[in-house]
């Protein structure tokens, strides 16, 4: 390796992080003057591995921290202790973290302790409420205090950072890397017969082949919706399904027991609601491209669905992605069953409203965010550790 190469260590641990970091890693690997290294925490093991395989990412370091029933204390401490040895072996010039997960915050804190500069991908998202979402709002705010480079997906995110007195010279507006990943995978889907790789249950495939009047894709996993929030969410889905028997609702159910129990207890007997295992990114993108409406509490899907012209109902009271709300592609509906059901039915039966939402401009990117991040890294003068002068 030439001595002038910058060693960039990308760290992530969940499926959404892996999807959004994959284009960055690919761009780093293709760039002269950069040595790209990857460390995964495996905060989500199975779902993470699916994405690593799809994007052909081979980690240089794997902490493999996932344990059944682990809490935020165990995740955080496992990452902090595990990365100490990784940094000693890899000696990176810059650490890249993504978003707002516990992996992101713990990895950034570990790098800070080692005085390694930090680049924060998808920086500047804010709701202004530390409890919504929890713990993500605190996570991303913490990283902003210690990062050396802030890659904001939108101008709104940049303004959030400026309001917190982050130096404008270390903020770059790049677009969101999830659009890079989505467009790449969508091209793969269109180049191949989907049934060569589709992993949906046969019952669901047949139901989709029968061309339902409307296809609704559902996801849900947010911690703040655990308990009554998911019970109300399920009540809304039952109402939609019962009043519209020719509509098909497909729900890849998150593996978290706090999600699985209420969802299967309340929905498993509904004829036109299909509860399926979590899907790998390729078949999930096919579902997203095929559906008419998305109901979700996911952050990433609020960015992805508008790129494919899909209206989104977000089952949260606030969102750190207000750009889509402002653009008209996303509506915040909370978890009130009547609100969710009424909005879903109105959008899918009102052609004018549906067209307005599906044809609105996507504010999140053009598919070139990763290259903008790499270009910024090449230009950035990474500070060297210096000992203070005698007092």
Write a structural description.
Strands 3-2-1-4-5-6-7 form a 7-stranded parallel β-sheet, with helices on both faces. It contains 16 helices and 13 strands. With 391 residues, the chain is of the alpha/beta class.
Structural class: alpha/beta
Share in β-strands: 5-15%
Mean pLDDT: 90
Strand order of the largest sheet: 3-2-1-4-5-6-7
The tally of domains stands at: 2
Task: Provide the succession of SSEs.
Answer: EHEHEHEHEHEHEHHEHEHEHEHEHEHHH
Strand count:
13
CATH superfamily of the largest domain: Glycogen Phosphorylase B
Task: Determine Rg (CA atoms, Å).
Answer: 21 Å
What is the name of the CATH topology of the largest domain?
Rossmann fold
Low-confidence stretches: none
State the helix count: 16
Q: Distance N terminus to C terminus?
A: 39 Å
For the sheet with most strands, the description reads: 7 strands, parallel
Q: Helix share of residues?
A: 40-55%
CATH class wording of the largest domain: Alpha Beta
* CATH architecture call of the largest domain: 3-Layer(aba) Sandwich
Oligomeric state of this protein: single chain
Task: Briefly summarize what is shown.
With 391 residues, the protein is of the alpha/beta class.
Q: What are the salient characteristics of this protein?
A:
391 residues, alpha/beta, Rossmann fold, 7-stranded parallel sheet, 6-stranded parallel sheet, 16 helices
Question: What topology emerges from the helices and strands here?
Answer:
Layout (H helix, E strand, L loop, with lengths): L5 E7 L2 H15 L4 E7 L4 H10 L6 E2 L9 H19 L3 E5 L3 H12 L4 E4 L14 H11 L2 E4 L2 H9 L7 E3 L3 H14 L11 H8 L4 E5 L9 H16 L3 E6 L4 H11 L5 E4 L4 H10 L2 E4 L2 H9 L4 E3 L7 H6 L2 E3 L4 H13 L1 H8 L10 H11 L12
Helix pairs in contact: 1-2, 1-7, 1-16, 3-4, 4-5, 7-11, 7-12, 9-10, 9-14
